[in-house]
Amino acid sequence: MIYGIHAVSFCHYYFVKYPAEVYPQEYFAGEYSGLIEYIDENIEESKEVYVLDSSYIYYLVSSQRSPYTFDTSDEDWGKRCLNFHFDFDLNHPETIDFERCVYIVRETYGDAIEVLEKYDAEYCEYGMYRLYYKK
Fold this sequence. Notes:
Blueprint: H1 2-22, H2 33-42, E1 48-51, H3 56-63, E2 80-81, E3 84-85, E4 101-106, H4 110-117, E5 122-126, E6 129-133
Parallel strand pairs: 1-3, 1-4
Antiparallel strand pairs: 2-3, 4-6, 5-6
């Protein structure tokens, strides 16, 4: 009986309270396949996509690309895949260029959102991410 009570207590904490206490968990992000579809359908193909604070692995999961097609021989292989870049640095806002780029940011990064919203860019949301762009 005591084991049952502890099991229920643990499950409640682990699945309800714990995620709320540590959200967003570093290194555990959601995928953004909806934003990739939106980019494919609505954004010029020539635009570069900068992803703030997300590893390339989430791009592979979101785009459902095989990791075997990912070119790891390139010296920038962890920073870039096709037109997706994973090394966007918000400490240099002068590099923001909506004429040739769009930006994917986690919704919990208020500083990044604040900087990008200064450019009067449009955005759409998918899961825990926002896509900022200008048409």
